[in-house]
Structure formats: structure tokens, C-alpha cells
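[Automated response] Your request has been received and processed.

Submitted sequence:
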Amino acid sequence: MSTQSYAHEVRQYTIGFIGAAALTILAYLSVKLEWYDATTTAIFVLVLAVMQFGVQVYYFLHLRGEAKPRWQSWSFVYSMAMMLIVVCGSLWVMYNLNYRMGMSGEQMEQRMLEENKKGF
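Generated structure:
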């Protein structure tokens, strides 16, 4: 590796690190200092998360303009598809479990109070 290409790589990693750190600190401060109301803060943090994802992909995973056959790009697309399947499947299962619990919050609280009166 030549000195020039090494310096370029170090510069790219440094830019990526500073960008990722800045986005993380910005998200932390927006929540900690309560810059916005709850809904706006959630949207703001999600936008920062998408930007963070872009920085990570570009600077650290090196998914830039890759020459053919683009193995890294295809493995990345496959990984994202698998992650989407797992997340959607998990949310589906959790939603159905919540739906099938049977008792409402008030009914559950009443039952817990009745059981608590019985003691151990």
C-alpha cells in the first residue's frame, strides 16, 4: 500500500469516526436536554439513526462504487433482507401475543389486587 493511499484511508476512517460520533452525541443531547417534545424527538433521533447508518455503510463497510461483480453489495442486500424478515416476524409474533393475552389492563390489575389480598 502506498503512502498516499494509506493517508487517504486514514482520512476516510477519521471522517467516518467524527461523523458517527457527532451524530451520536447530537442524538444524546437532543434527548437529554429535551430540545423537542416526545414525538418530534423520536422522529429527530430516527432521522439521525438513518444518517448514522449511511455513514457506517459508506465509510466503514466500504459500500461505495465497487467494481464488478459487487459481492459486498449483494451480501449487504441479503443481510438487510434477512434482518427485515427477522424484525417483521418478531413484531408480528409480539403483536399476536399481546392480542391473545385476554385480559385488559384494568382486569389484570384487579386480578393482581385480589391475588395480593390472599397473601403467600
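Summary generated for your ticket: The mean pLDDT is 88. The chain has two domains: 1-64, 68-120.
If you did not submit this request, please reply to this message.
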